[in-house]
Amino acid sequence: MTNNQYSGEDMIVAKGIEKFYPNGCHALKSVSATVRRGEVVAIIGPSGSGKSTFLRTLNQLEAINEGSIIVDGIDMYAKSTDINQLRQNVGMVFQSFNLFPHKTALENVMLAPMKVAKRPVKEVEVAAKALMKRVGLADRMNNYPSHLSGGQQQRVAIARALAMEPDLMLFDEPTSALDPEMVGEVLDVIKGLAAEGMTMVIVTHEMGFAKEVADRVLFMEEGALLVDDTPQVVFESPPHPRLQQFLAKIL
C-alpha cells in the first residue's frame, strides 16, 4: 500500500483481503474496510458469514492469503513487522473468557503488563485495581474465576485486555456466551469505552447495541462485505436485499 493511501486518522486499513482454508472454503472475498481513530465499528451478519474471521485477521490470529492490513500505520504482513509487538497495542476479547482459573481476577489483569510489558509490580497493581473499578468489579478483585458469574468473568477479560493500554480493542461476540440477564452489564462497559473515545471493532449479534453505539456498521454475507454504512442507514433503510432479509428475520 502506498503512503498516500494511509491517513494518520486511520487506525485500520484493510484492502482486498482474501482468506482460503485448506478445505477449500473461501472465507473472505476481497474485503476492504477502514476504521478511523476513535471510531466504533460493528460487524453484523449471519453465522458463517466471515465476521469473526475478518476480525481475527486484524491481529493476525488468522493469516490472509491476499491483500494488505495496515494497523496504526504498520503493515502487519511486512517482513520487518514484529507481530507480537503490534499485538501489545491491540486488545482482544473473545466469546470465551479464557481466564487463568488458578489466579484471582486481579492477578489475571496484572499478568500481561508484568510478564509481557515488564512493568513494575506496584505500578501494575495500582493500574489493575483502577481497571477493576472501571469495569464495576472493585469488590471482586480477590475472587477466582469459578466464583464469578459469566458477565463478571467477561468484564475481567475486558479489564485484562485494557491493562496493556491498547489503542485498539477487538471484540469477538463478547456477549454470545452469556445468559441474557448478564449481557447488559458487559455492553455497559463497552459503551463506557466508546464514550471515552476508544477505537473498537465489535462482532455482535446485539442489533440494538450496534445501532446505539456504533459509528458505522458492516454487514457481511458468505465472506463478502456487502454494506458499510451508518447505523441509521443500515437499520432504517437497508440498501441491500440480503441485509433486508437478515434484519427482517432477527428484528
From TrEMBL:
Transmembrane annotation, as ranges: none
GO molecular function, one term: ATP binding
Signal peptide per UniProt: none
One Gene Ontology term, aspect cellular component: plasma membrane
Coarse class of the protein's main subcellular location: membrane
SMART domains xref list: AAA
EC number, UniProt record: 3.6.3.-
PROSITE patterns named among the record's database cross-references: ABC_TRANSPORTER_1, ABC_TRANSPORTER_2
UniProt-recorded name of the protein: Glutamine transport ATP-binding protein GlnQ
Organism of this sequence: Vibrio ruber (strain DSM 16370 / JCM 11486 / BCRC 17186 / CECT 7878 / LMG 23124 / VR1)
Gene: glnQ_4
